Hints:
By secondary structure, the chain is mainly α. The protein contains 4 helices and no strands. Helix 1 crosses helix 2.
Amino acid sequence: MANAINTLAYARRLREAGFTEQPAEGQAEALADSLATKQDLKELAMRMDAGFQQAELRLHELENRMDIRFREHTALFPGLLTASLADLERRMTLRLGAMTMAGIGAASATVSIAATFSRPLPPGAIAPVRAGSGRPAPRAEPARATAIRYARSPR
Length: 155
């Protein structure tokens, strides 16, 4: 490395600040050896640029080799990727159809149950209970056979 600073002037300033001759000269030489000059930095930048260029070339070579290998493997199994995608699409369509049918069935069952429970009860469908006995009261008229029997007591 070339000396970028005037070591004699630096050692003189150290002596003026109170250092003795030997430590002042030693520190000046150590400082001069550890500093990088503009030329040193330019050389470092050039070496780094060359290293990056080599790395880029190596990366491009690897990409080209990977492309070639991918084309070779694709040529070994023509239509494999297309067939796999078509199979996946078919399976997804079937599952979506099954889920749609299950949803429609659940909605239909819910509507049917709601309609059943929202009908008014026919007269006499629920038997009145006598107070305190827990037994059904006598009926005035029998319920129709087609009526829904909810809490009907045995005859």
